[in-house]
Amino acid sequence: MRRFTDLYLALDGTNSTAEKTAMLVDYFDSAPDADAAWVVAFLTGNRPKGTGATGLLRDLCLRRTGHPAWLFDECRSAVGDLSETVALLLPPPDTVTDEPLHVLMRDRVLALIGAGAAVKERIVLDAWSVLDAESRLVYHKLIRGGFRIGVQRKTVAKALAEAGGLELDLVVHRLVGRFRPTAADFRRLLDPPSPDEHLDRPYPFFLAYGLEGPVESLGPPDGWVAEEKWDGIRAQLIIREDSIRLWSRGEESIGPMFPELVAAAQLPPGTVLDGEVVIWGEDGPR
């Protein structure tokens, strides 16, 4: 956990993309695969949710420290962040341990999901007893589901590509879809390329962007091509020899949500359709 805390603080302390990339490369090169997998998940938006710990932190901190509520609220107002306020107000831990990040995630974060109030209190208090102030700050952000740091997805991909000696486009493609934070899935990100690994994953979506120059730069209107803007779910349908996949723009496999659409996709293998999933009635889209 200490190594991940140092990484978080370092990433949060710089605006340089090159420095952030170098920090991530160093971490991916040296951290256990199971820990590195969670870092990839955090930085690509796959954070655990539903721990219900935000309200618990304030109440538990007041009981642990004995501070009056008004003093806590004044401190939070001055600091500006609940996670940091609690980390600063708590007394030092009984002992400090350096358990791996994946162990902390299993025992002290994911274990909170669906747990009763008493169990949640025990888990958080136990974490406080072995984490220093900086690690507590990071822990609080993880259990509140608000772990955000200024690292773009492409920066993560670039660091992985450098760490694995791979082409950037290959890693970007491997990161499409929901990444599972396991050691095996992290190792697969860095595996040598295989000729057909891209077949079931979506391609980058073709998106429309705002016109930066004058409208006259588009040429005469009689040369334009326009299309309807349907109000539905942007998706990509991929037909292969042995599979049909429907992917959302949010990189979720949504085929099970539209079985009739998948069943109707009687198209040649190798076909890729990028479009909008809409409800179609007798009079057109609804």
Polypeptide structure, described:
With 286 residues, the chain is mainly α. It folds into two domains: 2-143, Orthogonal Bundle (DNA ligase i, domain 1); 215-285, 2-Layer Sandwich (D-amino Acid Aminotransferase, Chain A, domain 1). It is built from 13 helices and five strands. The protein has helices at 2-12, 17-30, 33-43, 54-65, 69-79, 82-89, 101-109, 117-128, 133-143, 153-164, 168-174, 183-189, 259-263, and strands at residues 233-239, 244-248, 272-277, 280-281, 284-285. The strands form two sheets. A three-stranded antiparallel β-sheet has the order 2-1-3, with no helix packed on it. It has a two-stranded antiparallel ribbon with strand order 4-5. A hairpin with a 4-residue loop joins strand 1 and strand 2 (244-248). Helix 3 (33-43) crosses helix 12 and helix 5 (69-79) crosses helix 6 (82-89). The longest helix is centred in the N-terminal third of the chain and has 14 residues, at 17-30. The radius of gyration is 24 Å and the shape is elongated.
Distance between the termini: 51 Å
3D shape? elongated
How helical, in percent, are the residues?
40-55%
Level-1 CATH class name of the largest domain? Mainly Alpha
In N-to-C order, the SSE pattern is HHHHHHHHHHHHEEHEEE
What is the percentage of strand-forming residues? 5-15%
**Main sheet characteristics:** 3 strands, antiparallel
**What's the CATH architecture name of the largest domain?**
Orthogonal Bundle
Q: In angstroms, what is the radius of gyration?
A: 24 Å
How are the strands ordered across the major sheet? Answer: 2-1-3
Give the number of helices. 13
User: Can you count the beta strands?
Assistant: 5
Task: Give unreliable regions as ranges.
Answer: none
User: Within the CATH hierarchy, at the fold level, what is the topology of the largest domain?
Assistant: DNA ligase i, domain 1
The mean pLDDT is 90
State the CATH superfamily name of the largest domain.
DNA ligase, ATP-dependent, N-terminal domain
Which structural class should the secondary elements be placed in?
Answer: mainly alpha
Number of domains: 2
